[in-house]
Amino acid sequence: MATTTTTRRNHEYDTIHRNGPWPTATEFATAIDGRLEQQDFFACYLDAAKEVQRLIELARSSGQGFRAFGSSWSLNHIAHHQHHMHFNRGMNLRRAITSADLHADSTLDADNLFFFQCGSRVKEINNYLFTFGKSLKTSGASNGQTIAGCISTGVHGSAHQVGSMQDFVMGLDLIIGPQATDRVYLESEKAPALSNAFAARLGSRVIRNEGLFQAALVGLGSFGFIHGVVIETEDLFLLNRYTTTIPRSEALRLAKTMDFKNSSFSIPGEKDARGKPNEPHHFKIFFNPHRNDPDLVVEIMYKKPYQPGYPDPIPRVRTALYTELLTSLGRILGKIPRRIPAIVRLLEKTALPVEDGNAVIPVTGTHAQIFFDSIQQGPAFACEVCVELNHAEKAYDIMSKLARDIGPMPGLFAMRFVKQSKALLSSAAYPVSCMLEINGVISSSGKAPQALAAFCTATVKSLQDHHIPFTIHWGKTADWKYPGLVTYMFGHKATEWRRYRSALLTKEMAALFSNRFLTDTELDRYSDDAPAAIAQSLA
Description:
With about 550 residues, this protein is of the alpha+beta class. The chain has helices spanning about 35-40, 40-60, 120-130, 145-155, 195-200, 210-215, 250-255, 315-320, 325-335, 340-350, 365-370, 390-405, 450-465, 485-490, 490-505, 505-510, 515-520, and strands at about 5-15, 20-30, 65-70, 85, 95, 115, 135, 170-175, 185, 205-210, 225-230, 235, 235-245, 280-285, 295-305, 365, 380-390, 410-420, 430-440, 470. Strands 16-13-15-14-18-19-17-20 form an eight-stranded antiparallel sheet. A six-stranded mixed sheet has the order 5-6-11-8-9-10, with helices on both faces. Strand 14 and strand 15 (about 295-305) form a beta hairpin. Helix 12 (about 390-405) packs antiparallel against helix 13 (about 450-465). The two termini are about 30 Å apart.
């Protein structure tokens, strides 16, 4: 049987980037039954579901709350609960989907579909998919997050023709309460994936509703306990990764237009038959806000068919200057002291270098190899807003000035570009979204915490004052209590999201799966008039 370890003491929850800590009374950690896993996938999965439901009932019967967490990658309190928290990493079952598992009306290719339990980390998923000759379509810059955490917060990369991680999820298996009928397999009626019989073997009833599905995808951990997900993959591919500098004016033109075919910038060997630049798979621009350099460093990747026999990319990936912004900051500045003024002075003097000094020789590897292990850099912050392309430059000017004037903030900026998501509360809200982020180191001493809080508040106010529509990444640092923030960002979509959540969950369970983050953002409000038919089970 699945086993749960319970920690009860003066326990504190913190993120890996040390953005807390926050007090929590009880932490659960459930591990699947390894012997049962070898004998029967479905029996093992259902056994784990019942154990989670037992824990939910413990919270319910005491009138307290319950939240799941995985790798603690988010840089805020989105996963935290003061009562009961559940550590998911010991729940990592996986299964390839077969044609016999598909819904009769499904147009999906079973060879591309896989089922993963909530605690499966991106790295584990990558390794498993490789054995089938398959790959994730995209991921974040790191591979340590759990699949449930990635989906719930809308994790994305910079593949501007692909989307975010929730966009290749085809089904969600949710636990929405302690009863047997509180296990729900949810997918869209527009793109059915798995048969009712498969869901029954999971122990779940079936709901097919496009609106409810798109609301629950980026559900912020509050649509119940995500127990399993069905994801669509693609054939293994390679990425040619280059870093180089290009004129600032051209980098900003590309940020506004994504018009690579007519760009003055190109990489030798990455052109079409007419000599025009190829369309990149991934494009990212780096900025040092403390300098106005005439050239900007860009990271650009081109997608290629998979062929074995390429040089091992991991040694170069491990030492790459430009990966996550925090890793980049540490490597560019060397062993930086934890004194904020010293870091800022170094940034003011340091032009961002070109990696290896050679833009012609790419690093070639699979998606899993290019987006490899993250290097933890200690206490850190990350603020990220999403804007339309035509607002990208103005938003950077506003935020970089704030970074210089407030604090000043010890960090680097980057722009990434992501295709619009269908998920109701995805931060990738525009046809092609510019994700503008600043990552940096932070100290708990002196005025640094106050400066960061002031920067977050000023960012929201300044963008609103300039009438720039924006959203904020749910897993990043922000002034989440700013009045009317979510309404400004999402408008009627926030109301729809609350109604779908209220249709799926009872009022008691909605309160149980809420937390302070949901209260801060005013998304905890329950709609008593939400139509019950939205969450109607299918025979």
